[in-house]
Amino acid sequence: MTNFFLGLARGPIDHEASSVINVVANGAISMGDAVDLIAAPTTELLPRVQTSDAVQGDVTYGVAVGGDTDGIYGDGTAATDDTTRATNGAGLGVVVVTQGRCLARVDGDTGGAILIGSKLTQSATAGVLELAATGDEVIAVALQGSIGTADIIAVDIQRGGIAA
Predict the structure, then answer these.
(1) What domains can you pick out in the chain, each with its CATH number?
(2) Does the pTM of the predicted model rise above 0.85?
């Protein structure tokens, strides 16, 4: 359980090379969580997201890097208090990187060791990315390695299609 890029408290790694958008949270979201795009109520114009949960048909939208609660990146485990949450409830704002470099929660143990350049997909663990297997939707490429079950590493979010 380690944050491998301690110099960053929030936001993308490179503002010039990243697409960062404001959306509405559907519930509590930790810093570094992969988030899914879900249907928004008819009273909202902004997209609505929730922590990804590997449900078939969900679209992984990006990674949370800030929000109304605006906590800091924790130790990689799911947040238990607001110190490491981007936002703490439904209807609040969350900042999401949809393309570019940022920090993300990963599991480099369960699905296999993550190496620099590894293709990542959403895990069955809510909000976490893991090593992509053949047939998985590639969401990001690892910029750092991980062999732990709850790490935070730098990733490059670039839709890569289906892993071969």
Answers:
(1) 15-162 (2.40.300)
(2) yes
